[in-house]
């Protein structure tokens, strides 16, 4: 009987253990290593600003939208166009399951946002970037990270 009670608890703990809240400088280092610094003309501080305002650097963030789609992960990648979540119609342009964006491994996230930013809107595809980052001095996002 005790095993039946512990099994759901362990399942919840292991599912939650996959996500991660990154520190600003830790994320800066990973994004730089992933080739985002200067990608399509966007400096690393733009990517950090986006990740902060989209998810507070939390890879486990999921936002449900009024159109039935959802946004996933640290960059809030939308299921309508970029990934498949099995409950909304999708183009799946990144050919990735949306839940893959909820882990601490940012490889899929970085590969997908490179595709998103190549789209005609660039980083303007993200409302948090348009509202909080575009046209602003963002140098403080990387200033003390010793990159």
Describe it for me?
With 147 residues, the chain is mostly helical. The protein has one domain (19-141): Lysozyme (Orthogonal Bundle). Helix content is 37%, strand content 5%. The protein is built from five helices and three strands; from the N terminus they run αααβββαα. The protein has helices at 2-16, 24-33, 44-55, 107-118, 127-132, and strands at residues 62-64, 70-72, 77-78. A three-stranded antiparallel β-sheet has the order 1-2-3. Helix 2 packs across helix 3 (44-55). The longest helix has 15 residues, at 2-16. The chain is globular and about 40 Å long. The N and C termini lie far apart (53 Å). The model is unreliable at 1-17 (pLDDT under 50).
What is this entry, summarized?
This protein is mainly alpha-helical and 147 residues long. The chain has a single domain, classed as Lysozyme (Orthogonal Bundle). The protein is 37% helix and 5% strand.
Topology of helices and strands:
Layout: H1 2-16, H2 24-33, H3 44-55, E1 62-64, E2 70-72, E3 77-78, H4 107-118, H5 127-132
Antiparallel strand pairs: 1-2, 2-3
Residues in β-strands, percent = 5-15%
What is the approximate shape?
A: globular
Biggest sheet strand line-up: 1-2-3
Q: What is the first-to-last residue Cα distance?
A: 53 Å
Number of strands: 3
Order of helices and strands: HHHEEEHH
User: What helical percentage do the residues reach?
Assistant: 25-40%
Give the structural class: mainly alpha
CATH topology name, in short, is Lysozyme
Sequence stretches where pLDDT stays below 50 over 5 or more residues: 1-17
CATH architecture: Orthogonal Bundle
Q: Give the radius of gyration.
A: 16 Å
The number of helical segments is 5
Number of separate structural domains: 1
Name of the CATH class: Mainly Alpha
Describe the sheet with the most strands: 3 strands, antiparallel
Average pLDDT level: 90
